[in-house]
Amino acid sequence: MHGSDSRVEDAFSAYLARVRAFSRDVLRPAEERVEAEDAIPEEIVAAMRELGLFGISLPPQFGGLGWNMEQQVLLTMEFTQASAVYRSRFSTTIGLTSQVILDYGTPAQQQLYLPAMAAGRVTGAFCLTEEAAGSDAGAVATRAVRDGADYVISGVKRYITNAPDADLFLVVARTGAPDSGGEGLSCFLVERGTPGLTTPPHSRMMGQRGSHVGEVHLDACRVPKGALLGSKEGNGLKLALRGINHARTHVAATCVGQALRLMDEALDYLTRRRQFGSLIGEFQALQVLLGESQSEISAARALVLECARQFDRGPIPHGEIACAKLFASEMVSRVADRVVQMLGGQGYLEERAVARLYRDVRLFRIFEGTSQIQQINIARRLLREAGQRAA
Ligand SMILES: Cc1cc2nc3c(=O)[nH]c(=O)nc-3n(C[C@H](O)[C@H](O)[C@H](O)COP(=O)(O)OP(=O)(O)OC[C@H]3O[C@@H](n4cnc5c(N)ncnc54)[C@H](O)[C@@H]3O)c2cc1C
């Protein structure tokens, strides 16, 4: 190993240890407050900024920490052993928006936004989904019409994470003809404060209270042509997918972190609760659930790490990412269900973290592409490759 490699490894190990301690000592103890207040306390967001969490995926030239994808998922598996709501606060900045600007933005766009994003001064929101464009992302109806040196954007985005808190909105809009499908989409960077852009109060959700998800209204919102991301029309879906694939990999890692947390809660209970004169952890029926869960967590962890290494080697492994997101999100739902069962009545009461975690993890099978969409993508890829081999 080269000297510089080992220095980087040491620096990463030290950072990982800081994040682990932050998650355990700061984030976990504040979970109930986040749930009760439906918001992350501002001092915790400030501490997240100070720790550099908003900049883990950006290179040092833009003020980030420059960790590669393997390191990012290792970090994610640590900080998501606390409530996933914390991760949600910076997820849209580190993945869905900044990575697209990093790979496709003009030098002016990169200089303008990336240092502020890395420092956590600018929160990004990724605005793709609409009423008629959910899984069918190519059906976006929001229009961006060229008018002199500007574009005028109109439409309504929904289910947008961090919409009420964001400063910068990456908006996918149609610049092509109404029937141009995915080919006719482009991405725009719209700043809060632009006349016509409003964010109504966030929606109430089944879980993840404290994460603010809501609509973004664009009512004849006028932006200069320099707001067109990458200054080229028509490649919006490709750009959006760059952010989505980063986010899907992180969601898969989040599922591993949340499953590890659930196991922690289960083990704590199984080694204290007694029935029929024994600790309930001594009952083989529950040991089966524990063994099954741990093996699935280990499998998901290995898959996510392998996927991250492929991501780092390039090109972006779309098929592997779909497998990791599908498997890990289904896995954590199964683990959460088993852990509720292992805790009996205590698993169903809001007094413990388990009921909240059970509700929180349900989301992972829905956003960043539902499980059905991942299955379809995986199957289509297999069939295409088989067709090519047969030809
Ligand atoms: C909390 C939360 C946060 C989100 N954050 C963001 C965000 O920040 N930015 C953003 O742009 N979006 C965001 N989303 C949107 C999310 O990505 C979509 O909800 C998701 O892609 C599914 O779209 P939909 O809800 O319209 O469901 P639909 O597409 O209507 O799907 C409904 C059901 O039909 C199934 N289905 C659809 N098409 C097919 C098919 N071809 N074959 C088989 N089954 C199919 C789906 O799997 C699902 O079971 C968020 C959603 C939630 C709930």
Describe the strand arrangement of the main beta sheet, using strand numbers: 2-3-7-6
The class by helix and strand makeup works out as: alpha+beta
User: Roughly how much helix do the residues carry, as a percent range?
Assistant: 40-55%
Biggest sheet record: 4 strands, antiparallel
Which outline best applies? globular
The number of helical runs is: 12
| Name of the CATH homologous superfamily of the largest domain | Butyryl-CoA Dehydrogenase, subunit A, domain 3
- What is the total tally of β strands? 9
**CATH architecture type of the largest domain:** Up-down Bundle
* Number of self-contained structural domains: 3
Which CATH first-tier class of the largest domain would you pick? Mainly Alpha
Rg measurement, Å = 22 Å
Q: In angstroms, what separates the terminal alpha carbons?
A: 45 Å
CATH topology of the largest domain: Butyryl-CoA Dehydrogenase, subunit A, domain 3
Low-confidence stretches: none
User: Would you tell me the overall average pLDDT?
Assistant: 96
SS strand fraction = 5-15%
SSE ordering: HHHHHHEEEEEEEHEEHHHHH
List all distinct small molecules, including ions and cofactors, that are bound in this structure. flavin-adenine dinucleotide
Describe this structure in words.
By secondary structure, this protein is of the alpha+beta class. It has three domains: about 5-120, Butyryl-Coa Dehydrogenase, subunit A, domain 1 (Orthogonal Bundle); about 125-235, Butyryl-CoA Dehydrogenase, subunit A, domain 2 (Beta Barrel); about 240-390, Butyryl-CoA Dehydrogenase, subunit A, domain 3, CATH 1.20.140.10. Helix content is about 55%, strand content about 15%. It has helices spanning about 5-25, 30-35, 40-50, 70-80, 85-105, 105-120, 235-270, 285-315, 320-345, 345-350, 355-360, 370-390, and strands spanning about 125, 145, 150-160, 170-175, 185-190, 195-200, 215-225, 275, 280. It has a four-stranded antiparallel sheet, covered by helices on one side. A three-stranded mixed sheet has the order 1-4-5. The protein has a two-stranded antiparallel ribbon with strand order 8-9. Strand 2 (about 145) and strand 3 (about 150-160) form a beta hairpin. Helix 8 (about 285-315) runs antiparallel to helix 9 (about 320-345) and helix 9 runs antiparallel to helix 12. It is globular and about 80 Å long. The N and C termini lie far apart (about 45 Å). The model has no long low-confidence stretch (mean pLDDT about 95). It binds flavin-adenine dinucleotide (FAD).
